[in-house]
Structures are given as C-alpha cells and as structure tokens.
Amino acid sequence: MLTRIELRHFKCFSLLKLPLCPLTLLSGVNASGKSSVLQGLVLLHQTIREHEWSTRLMLNGAAIRLGTVSDVIDQVHGRRDCGIALLDEDTAYEWEFTGERGEMSMAVERVRVDGREEDRPRSLRHLLPPDRAEASLAARLRGLTYLTAERLGPRESYALEDPQVAPVVGPAGEYAASVLYSGLDVRVPDGLIIRDIPPTRLRQVEARMGCFFPGCGLTIDKTPQTNAVTLGFRMSRDMDFHHPIHTGFGLTQVFPIVVGALSANRNDLLLIENPEVHLHPAGQGMMGEFMAQVASAGVQVVIETHSDHVLNGIRRAVKDRVLPPENVAVHFFRPRQGDDPDSVPQVQSPSLDGEGNIDTWPVGFFDQFDKDMNYFAGWN
185 with 201: CB under 8 angstroms? Predict the structure, then answer.
C-alpha cells in the first residue's frame, strides 16, 4: 500500500508531503491542487504502461494529457525540474525529472530506491533500475485504474477490446462495458460480494447497480459481426431493457465506477474524480459507503470529491465498523497563499474517530450548508 506521495515543484506545489491510507479523500476549493495529486500518480502509470523501457516521463498519453513541461512545473519556484516520490510500505521511491519548457516529456534526472541513487540513468524499466523493475509498486502503478470526472455518457453501443489492450475501465470509463463482458463469470473479491447473489462479475455489478438505483437490472450482449457490445438497463422486472440513451445519466456515470471496483484485485490502486456526478444526495452518501467497502476489501482508493454526502457516507461506514478510522485519510486543499510561514497551510488533514466524528472543521471544509442556514436565520 502507498503510505505517502511527495510532489516537488509540481503544478501548484512547491513541496507537498501527503499521507495516504487504504481510503483517501481529497477535498477543497477549485484549482487548489486536488487533481494534481492524482495526476502525479497517473503520469507514472502512463509512462510505465505505454513506454516500458523509457527514461523519460511522458506527459501526454492515453490516460492523461498535461501539455508541456511549462504546464507541469510549479511556476513560482520551479524552472525546469520537478520531483515525485512514493513511500510504498517501507520502501521509498523517488524520481527527479527535468526538461525544456516546451517539451512534452521529461528526462529522468535521478532515481532513488531506498536511498540507492542513480543519476541520469541510461537504462530503466518501469521507470526503475532494471534490477528493481519487478517491484510490486511497478506492477500496481501499471495496473492502476483512473476515472476522471468527465466520464463517457450514454451510448447505443460500446467498443469491445482485448483484455490486454483494455485491462481496466479507462479514464472516461470507455472500456467499462468491455471489461465487464470479458470477465462476465469472473469471481469478484470476497469482501465485495453481495449475499445471495451469484459471485460473478456480471451478477454482482447488476446487484451493486441495484443498490444505487433500486430495481435496476442489467444485460450486456455482443453485437453480431462487430467488435462491440450493447448495454441494457431496466428499473423494474415489469419493464423492458433499454439502451442507456433512454435512461438517466446517473446510471452511466456510476456504471464504470462499479465495474472498476469489482474488477480490481487486492492491492490495486483505484483513483476516482468526483464519484458523485449525477447522483442524488442519498446516492452520493451510498457512494461514500461503497468506497469504504472497496477499501476494506484490500483495494487502495483515492477519491477527489466536492460532496459532503460522500464524506458522510464514509463516516457512516467508519461508525459501522466497515473500515477502521486509521484506514481513512481526509485532506482539505486551499490555493497557495504565498510563502509566509504564518499563513494558513495549503493542506489540512482532519481526523476521524471510531464513531465517524471529525476532530476539526477548517473554514471552507464542507461548511456551506451551515453558512447558508446561518444566513437565513439572520446569524451573519
């Protein structure tokens, strides 16, 4: 499990040292750096997966497109270099990257693994010295699942890909139907099986969708003589199945999250932006509880959210003993306010206790409801 990520001169951070847990929630105002944390991990994943032997960090690829070096390096303190470091249990991995500002990739200037340093390496595999390339970290970064907030909407059909090409649901969820179809009868992780339902991926995905959308049924069929599948949803047994274009957006936004979670293996990494998109508040709370269940099954989850309902769903899961409080990290981000040591920290990290209570509520941390109620009550 990753226990910390460090970003140096990366995007809006001069230096960030962020603890990670089995379930990590990133919250905060817009443009405060939440997505940058995910992007640091995704850049490593993208390079490892698409360019196995590269000695450069690829800023643009199938998973993410960040532009040029000037778009990635901290504009205040950085010049032409940045760094990413990960602590994986007890092993530290550190990379320093450099590049000209107009380039779309960055050279690995230095790599350190547990203090062993290699400058300007001439040969790397999975961004690591060849003798460390089989590290569990490399495998987990390569198989990482990243879902952006801009997920694929309803379609009449979905591309069917070989599992080697599309092993995960894809950043927009574009391969979710393909992943489901290729693993219809695969058993889902024991900790995520809904009782009295067959433990196969298809039936468990259908049952989990039914938790978010009561009565939901699901069918998936290959279109003859094409490399495509169609999805069908219905909201009760008395209804026919319909293509997603005839159902609500919420179904197609939750579908790749459920497929991604139920197709992950223990120790995999699951990164999700705004899992609450197009969900009713009750469904948003259920999403928080589901994320806690996924983490309790051994999949490391990092979510970025603007929803207090998602947070409260996680708090309920802690109170219900689904996940111990020490397995949850909550981080609240603010825009950088200069280098004054007395200024408010860029990131604050409230803690949960065993009853799901939060020890401190920074100003701006899911407090808008209280502010609005105070306004209407005349408590300005």
Answer: yes
